[in-house]
Amino acid sequence: MPWTEIDTARLPDGDVMTLRRNGEAFEIRVGLYELMSSRNPVSERAMAALVVSRLERPIGHALIGGLGLGYTVRALLDAAPLACITVAELVSKVVDWNRGPLAGLAGRPLDDARVSVFAGDVVEALHANPRGFDVILMDVDNGPEAVMFDGNRPLYAADGLALVLAALAPGGIACFWAADPSPGFERLLAGALATSERHDIAVEGRIGHTLYLVRQDG
């Protein structure tokens, strides 16, 4: 069955983001590259389960960097019923799609009163809320080894990591999604004043994606 283009969005750098559908499957692409797909949202759900299992208290306020197809928001809503969730999304069309053709994928999470959308870069949301979040889930790109947008590259460098950690409340936890393991990012984490864990997530019986869990020391 051929893919059908549903809509497009022009990104700040001039690239075009495309929403496509093939039967029950949806994907968002940038140029020739798949950015996200509805086919196997295993790792997005694993992010939510992981932070809930590791945090030593109920989640009060959470930040999700990147709305995607809504799976991470839904998973955190289900796993942390007391949480208020801020979702930072730079591309307004992605929000529109999640309220339109993509809404049913994850059970319309943006309709939940516990969810608010921050229309802007996740960096702005982090700067605006020092020590403001119990958990931060970073899913804004394809990870440190496969960054698609140069503007996101600093998030996986020392200053970006420090910014994320500074936005965590004491005892809080951050989780970074990555398409592939990143030795460079692991070296950065090892040299930071933080405790980190790497979790490889199996997708269809093979290692699909990697999650990095980070907790600030002290």
CATH fold call: Rossmann fold
The number of helical runs is: 6
- Total number of distinct structural domains: 1
Q: What would CATH call the class?
A: Alpha Beta
User: What would you report as the Rg, rounded to the nearest angstrom?
Assistant: 16 Å
Strand content: 35-45%
Order of helices and strands: EEEEHEHEHEHEHEHEE
Question: Which stretches are poorly predicted, pLDDT < 50 over at least 5 residues?
Answer: none
Largest beta sheet: what is the strand line-up? 7-6-5-8-9-11-10
Determine the oligomeric state from the structure: single chain
Annotation, overall tally of beta strands? 11
For the record, the CATH architecture stands as: 3-Layer(aba) Sandwich
Question: CATH H level: which superfamily?
Answer: Vaccinia Virus protein VP39
The biggest sheet, with number of strands, parallel, antiparallel or mixed sense and barrel status, is: 7 strands, mixed
Mean pLDDT: 93
Described by the principal axes of the CA atoms, the overall outline is globular
Specify the helix fraction band: 25-40%
Distance between the termini: 54 Å
